[in-house]
Design goal:
The protein contains two helices and five strands. The protein has about 100 residues and is α+β, with helices and mostly antiparallel strands. The protein has one domain: OB fold (Dihydrolipoamide Acetyltransferase, E2P) (Beta Barrel), CATH 2.40.50. Strand 4 and strand 5 form a beta hairpin. The radius of gyration is 18 Å and the shape is elongated. It comes from Lactobacillus apis. InterPro entries: DUF1093, YxeA-like_sf. Keywords: Membrane, Transmembrane, Transmembrane helix.
Length: about 100
Amino acid sequence: MKKLFYSIIGIIALAIVALVVIPNQYTDYFNPHIKMETDYAKVPKNTQKYYNVQAVDRNGRKLTYKIMYVGGYDPTQEYIAIHHKRQYVKLIEYIPKNKMPKSN
């Protein structure tokens, strides 16, 4: 019975560590230490799948990481606002160029 209890505690501890250490869209979604942010990016036209997106915050500073995948819905647009928790993208909005923050 003790072995089972310690095994369950160990599995829970490993799951918590994985939640914090492994950055991907699934762990970022459940991680309570990451807050939802809105950042901005220029994406290529004529596609709806954006890979390795370099986003900037509202002050124009590049994020320290790239968002691995962002799905779009309008291939004619190239500026987006991304609502996300690190790699987990909740939604995007297409924005006009003048709403895009200037990059530093």
